[in-house]
Specification:
There is one protein chain. The chain has a six-stranded parallel beta sheet, with helices on both faces. The radius of gyration is 18 Å and the shape is globular. It is built from nine helices and six strands; from the N terminus they run βαααααβααβαβαββ. α9 links the parallel β4 and β5. The protein has about 250 residues and is an alpha/beta fold. The relative contact order is 0.20.
Amino acid sequence: MSRLFSSSSVLGAAGSKMASFGKVTHCIFDMDGLLLDTEVLYTQVTQSIAEPYGKTYTWEIKQSIMGLQRDEAAEAIVAALELPLTPAEYVEVSNDLINRTMEQCQLMPGAERLVRHLHRHNVPIALATSSGVDSVEVKTKNHRELFELFGHKVMGSSDPDVKEGKPAPDIFLVAASRFADSPPPDRCLVFEDAPNGVTAAIAAGMQAVMVPDPRVEEDQRKHATLVLRSLEDFQPEQFGLPPFST
């Protein structure tokens, strides 16, 4: 079986009883590494900046900053790699590289199917990304029609209402408050790939489906409600959402 479940799952062998979680009515999606395959590109950009200084952008550093807002991530990278740049200089250099690289990013497996399915069944969906407005515009350039299906977007690095970035819960609470009917947090299901994002979702009082990089260690997955290898493995009915027809 292709799914990996957190300790909260009750699913046993194939064919045994279905795992059951709290019923939700609204869904909130992260973007980088969850809907869009941008993380490899981010690694390439960061390493290209670090390499002239003889530094290596390791997985350990990358994992610690995943989900952070732009300025926080820049500060953490500069400190971890001991780069002779200010965080502001790093942002300027990286933004130029990102704008030239990210236009080519592709959708992650299962992302389009799930987003279209929820939209078709009138399940309110929102985007909650730590990226800023300009960055989101570049990354979604070739997928605009799909991203227009989201009822609203919260872009943490640009949104004044998001006071603190992930792992603080702000971005998900803001996203929930902007749904037309302002659902309570426990009616919102968050989809994330990063440990910082899952921590933020749980802190917001929401359930969190995690689709992590295979290198994310087990102790960084265990606080998620459900852990999957791919969005292709998500079963909406486990959370009281309309099931896929095929």
